[in-house]
Amino acid sequence: MATTPKTSRNNPASRNTPVKRNRTSTVTASKSKTSAITRMYRHPVGKTILIILAVIVVFGLNLLITLNHFERFFILLGVEWIVATLVGWIMFVFKDKLKA
């Protein structure tokens, strides 16, 4: 009587229990989801660089708008400075009230 030889390998399709497979997660996928600007803003040196770049962009746009008329340039810059100060104080007051 001939019998079929048994192998040491179990066929997963013939099992009654579900097969659990370990999946490896990649850490690099989560890092790539954040943008470069966000990662730069989280670092103190990056924050300084971004602020300097923003100031350069504002000055450049003001020069383009005023067409090198420095009287208008300084008036526009003063208005922007006042608006930025008011917005900063309003944000400070709201954050302070939310903490209290």
Task: Give descriptors for this structure.
100 residues, mainly alpha, 0% strand, elongated
Q: What this model shows, in words?
A:
The structure is a single chain. By secondary structure, the protein is mainly alpha-helical. It has one domain. It is 65% helix and 0% strand. The chain starts with 26 loop residues before the first helix and ends with a helix. The model has no long low-confidence stretch (mean pLDDT 83).
Taking pLDDT < 50 over at least 5 consecutive residues as the criterion, the unreliable ranges are none
What's the tally of helices? 4
Terminal CA distance reads 88 Å
| Domain module count | 1
Q: What structural class do you assign from the helix and strand content?
A: mainly alpha
Order of helices and strands: HHHH
Q: Provide mean pLDDT, rounded.
A: 83
Strand content: under 5%
Radius of gyration: 31 Å
What is the β-strand count?
A: 0
**Residues in helix, %:** 55-70%
Coarse shape = elongated
Largest sheet: none
Give a short overview.
The protein has 100 residues and is an all-alpha fold. The protein contains four helices and no strands. The chain has one domain.
Question: What topology emerges from the helices and strands here?
Answer:
Layout: H1 27-31, H2 36-42, H3 44-66, H4 70-99
Helix pairs in contact: 2-3, 3-4
